[in-house]
Specification:
Radius of gyration: 19 Å
Strand content: 15-25%
Bound molecules: zinc ion
Shape: globular
Structural class: alpha/beta
C-alpha cells in the first residue's frame, strides 16, 4: 500500500503567512538549512487509479498539483480521489473539501459530530450538495473497525476539542470523544491494494495530536509498523512564546518532543517501527537540519516528515 505525505506542517504551514520567527524569516531569506512545508495532508492508494485522502487541508489544491498520481486521467472531468477521511472539523482538516467542489462525486468519512458541524452549521459546505450523490457522508464509529475502499481503519479518540467556531448548542449536544480522532490504517488483508503486494497486518498510525501516552496506547503503537506522530512542538514552552497563543504545548493537547515527559523519552522503547514526526509547527527547531534538535531526533531513530515523502506499507 502506497502512502504519500502531501503536507507535513502544522496549521499555518511553513513559512506561515504572518510569522517572522527565526525559522520562517531565514527560510524566506534563503538562509535556512531545510525546506518549506504545506499543511499536514496524507493520501494512500486504495486501488489501481484510486486514492483516498486523509483530511482535506487548506493547501489541498497545490498538494494535488504536486502529486501526478492525483491528477485527472480520463476525459475532461475526472479525479482518482474517491474517498476523504476526516479526523476533525478544524480549518486545517476540513477546509480543503471546499476545493473539491467542481462536480466530482466522492465519499466523506467523519464522526457523526464532525459531519453535523460541517454540513448543518456551515452553509458554505452546501457547495458539496449541488447534485445528488456529490459528497456521500459516512459516519466513523469509535468502537469498531471500518472499511474505506480496500483499507481497514480504526479510530482512536484523541484529547482534542471541537473547533472554537462551533456554537454553544452544538457543543452541548456533541460527543467530545468525536471531536478529534487518530487513525490506525492497514491494507485489507487478502487484497492487493497496490502494485507492491503487502504482507497482511502492516499498520500505520496517524496521530498528529497526542497529549499523553497511556500504557494501552504504547502497547498499540508497539504493534504498528509506521508511526506518523505528533511533531508539533519541540518544547512545552514553545507555543507560549508565540503572541496570541499563551498556552503550553501540553495545554494545547500536544506532547512536546523533548523533556522528561516528551515523545523522545516516552517512546524510546519503541524500536521495532519506523517513527516519523509530522504536523511540525513552523517554530519547531527540528525543521532546521543543522540544528542540535534535528540531530537529536535523528540520533533517537526518528525521521522528520517532509512533503512528497512516500511510505510503503
Ligand atoms: Zn514562523
Amino acid at each position: 500500500m502506497r502512502v504519500k505525505v502531501l503536507g507535513s506542517a502544522a496549521g499555518g504551514g511553513f513559512p506561515q503567512w504572518n510569522c517572522a520567527c527565526s525559522n520562517c524569516r531565514r527560510l524566506r531569506e534563503g538562509r535556512f538549512s531545510g525546506v518549506g512545508r504545506t499543511q499536514t495532508q496524507l493520501a494512500w492508494q486504495s486501488g489501481p487509479g484510486r486514492w483516498t485522502l486523509l483530511n482535506a487541508s487548506p493547501d489541498l489544491r497545490a498538494q494535488i498539483e504536486a502529486t501526478p498520481e492525483l491528477w485527472p486521467q480520463d476525459g475532461n472531468r475526472h479525479s482518482p480521489i474517491s474517498d476523504v477521511v476526516l479526523t476533525g472539523a478544524e480549518v486545517d482538516q476540513a477546509v480543503g473539501l471546499l476545493l473539491l467542489r467542481e462536480f466530482h462525486s466522492f465519499r466523506v468519512h467523519a464522526t457523526r459530530s464532525v459531519r453535523r458541524i460541517l454540513t448543518e452549521d456551515n452553509s458554505m459546505f452546501g457547495v458539496l450538495r449541488r447534485f445528488a450523490g456529490q459528497a456521500c457522508w459516512q459516519d466513523i464509529p469509535l468502537d469498531a473497525a471500518f472499511s474505506v475502499d480496500g483499507a481497514r481503519l480504526e479510530a482512536l479518540s484523541l484529547a482534542g476539542s471541537f473547533p472554537g467556531f462551533i456554537g454553544g448548542a452544538r457543543s452541548a449536544e456533541s460527543d467530545p470523544a468525536e471531536a478529534v480522532i487518530g487513525l490506525f490504517i492497514a491494507p485489507e488483508s487478502g487484497r492487493a491494494v497496490a502494485a507492491v503486494s503487502s504482507p497482511p497486518g502492516k499498520t500505520l498510525a496517524f496521530l498528529p495530536g497526542v497529549g499523553s501516552i497511556p500504557g494501552s496506547l504504547f502497547e498499540r503503537l508497539r504493534q504498528c509498523d509506521v508511526l506518523l506522530f505528533d511533531g508539533t512542538f519541540w518544547s512545552d514552552e514553545e507555543p507560549a512564546r508565540i503572541p496570541g497563543i499563551g498556552k503550553t504545548a501540553s495545554q494545547m493537547g500536544h506532547m512536546p518532543i523533548s523533556g522528561p515527559r516528551g515523545t523522545l523519552a516516552s517512546l524510546a522503547g519503541l524500536d521495532g517501527s519506523r517513527k516519523i514526526f509530522i504536523h511540525i509547527n513552523n517554530t519547531n527547531p527540528i525543521l532546521d537540519e543543522e540544528s542540535a534538535e534535528h540531530r537529536a531526533v535523528r540520533d533517537a531513530g526518528w525521521e522528520v516528515a517532509r512533503d512528497g515523502m512516500e511510505i510503503t506499507l
